[in-house]
Amino acid sequence: MRKITVIGTGYVGLVSGAGISDFGHHVTCADIVESKIKLLQEGKIPIYEPGLDELVDRNVSAGRLSFTTKVDEAIQQADVIFIAVGTPQGENGEANISAVEAVARSIGKNLNGYKVICTKSTVPVGTGDRVCELVRETMPEGGEFDYVSNPEFLREGSAVKDFLWPDRVVIGASSDKAFDILRDVYRPLYVNEKPMVHTNVATAEMIKYAANAFLALKISYINEVANLCEAVGADVHLVAKAMGQDGRISPKFLHPGPGFGGSCFPKDTHAIAAFSRKKGVPMNTIDAAIITNNDQKKRMTEKLKNLVGGDFSGKTIGVLGLAFKPNTDDVRESSSIEMIQTILDGGGKVKAYDPMANESMKKVFPNLNYSHSWEETCDDVDAVAIMTEWNEFRGMSLEKLKKIMKAPIVLDTRNILSIDKLSEHGFQFDNVGRKKYYDS
Ligand code: UGA
To answer: Which residue's CA is the closest to the ligand 1 atom numbered 37?
Structure first.
């Protein structure tokens, strides 16, 4: 059993801390934000993430997981310290690593014996060197440590599963000793023969950006294919399906939609584009993925505008789905934000609903009319825009939907409704890369 401290209780820190305690280690999650720690100490989880409450509960009850604001003490008592603080987008698209730097200084000051310092936050290549430099500058004489980059590949909405059953664990270690310690932290996964990828620090840092940027690129690519499908009368649903049957391509992350959002892809694509330019090796493919994604968000607003006759003024639109993806309450960079803003700017009104994210969206748009079900949202509206593929929207009764709407007009940006059924029920509709039908 190792003594572990995880600094930062965002979704990466919290899921990782709870997951590592589930592997049998003694974990302290530390954060300077008192309100978050207070909630956690009271047994409440500050974010919605399926399965996280059970995971936290189980390990708190077993005495393996605790929460504190005393970051210095938490560092002193640990053998391994994970840095999992935020790296928001800063100037010129670069990741702002000031929180990581501040933690590195705290670790240095509290280095009371050999420790492994491990970064989980997504940080530009070279940050490991910077962390080591800051620890050396601030640590007592004779202090000893090793450094590891151990990027996380969790997806919001399935983060617990992704942590406990990962495809691989990447360990970019500054020494063999540190690699062995990290492998021991992940012992149950190692025993289950999950691949442990042993690299140097820069390679591990690069793997994280290369993976996220590639997935973002794949989404932008299929979105452009979808747009071309519209122009040539092809169906992207079947195009993507047949493409994905080629094992070299894979069907995953090949779903067209309203453009990617969230706390990772938008930020990480900008960061890799910025640091590749800085290194003199600009990545044109990533620049293109960013442009395509911004265009895709706009394209959805144009589609809705066309559906309602070219003008939002005086129209009330039901927006179904506010989170950037299902199974989360996170609305960061969600395509629904641009959609709502455009409707409001055009003089329209919005009725909005998300099964989990109404409260989060109230921080962005405090004055919208928020509903508590799809029926309430769609009642007497001029059109509906489906922005997130929650299961409850897949299961909507089209008969009922048509009855309660003022006019039967639907924009399905996630392609979750059956085109045949929409036609049968006499809807006017549009989607992404499939057959559309409306009076223009
Ligand atoms: C992403 C990565 O998938 C994780 O591996 C990574 O660890 C994480 O970022 C991170 O860096 O922390 P996440 O942003 O939580 O995870 O969610 P995704 O499932 O990747 O979805 C991102 C966006 O892409 C969503 O808006 C989603 O709707 C969109 N998307 C995804 C599509 O439009 N089409 C797809 O086929 C897949």
So the answer is: 253
The pocket around ligand 1, CB under 6 angstroms, is made up of: 122, 152-156, 212, 215, 219, 253-255, 257, 260-262, 264-265, 324-325
For residue 331, how far is its CA from the centre of ligand 1 (angstroms)? 13
Pocket test for ligand 1, best of 154, 161, 167 (most atoms within 8 A of CB): 154
Of 14, 149, 215, 414, the residue with max ligand 1 atoms within 8 A of its CB, to mutate for a pocket test, comes to: 215
What is the distance in A from the centroid of ligand 1 to the CA of 263?
A: 9
Domain count, the chain: 2
- To the query of whether residue 264 is one of the catalytic residues in this protein, the response is yes
Last residue of a domain, one of 174, 199, 224: 199
| Domain end among 173, 199, 225 | 199
83 DSSP β-pair partners? 7, 119
- Same structural domain, 77 and 214: no
Return the half-sphere exposure (C-beta side, CA atoms, 13 A cut-off) of residue 132. Answer: 15
Six-digit token pair at 186?
Answer: 């992940």
Structure tokens at 37: 């720690």
Distance CA 28, CA 7 (A): 8
For residues 36 and 65, state if they share a domain.
yes
Same domain, 215 and 246: yes
Phi then psi for residue 243, to 5 deg, are -60, -45
Residue nearest to atom 24 of ligand 1 (CA): 260
Quote the ligand 1 centre to 215 CA distance (angstroms): 8
- Give distance in angstroms: CA of 253 to centre of ligand 1: 8
Instruction: Write out the chain's pLDDT in tens, 440 residues.
Output: 899 999 999 989 999 999 999 999 999 999 999 999 999 999 999 999 999 999 999 999 999 999 999 999 999 999 999 999 999 888 788 889 999 999 999 999 999 999 999 999 999 999 999 999 999 999 999 999 999 999 999 999 999 999 999 999 999 998 999 999 999 999 999 888 899 999 999 999 999 999 999 999 999 999 999 999 999 999 999 999 999 999 999 999 999 999 999 999 999 999 999 999 999 999 999 999 999 999 999 999 999 999 999 999 999 999 999 999 999 999 999 999 999 999 999 999 999 999 999 999 999 999 999 999 999 999 999 999 999 999 999 999 999 999 999 999 999 999 999 999 999 999 999 999 999 998 76
Domain holding 173, by residue range, is: 3-199
E strand map for 89-205: 115-119, 145-149, 169-173, 196-199
Do 194 and 259 fall into the same domain? no
Angle among Cα 322, 324, 326 to the nearest 5 degrees reads 85
Answer yes or no: do 75 and 210 share one domain. Answer: no
436/334 same-domain check: yes
Q: Which of 29, 118, 132, 264 is catalytic?
A: 264
Beta bridge partners of 149: 119, 172
- Whether residue 272 is found in the same domain as residue 158: no
Which helix (H) or strand (E) segment holds residue 318: the answer is: strand 316-320
Statement to judge: residues 103 and 127 lie in one domain = yes
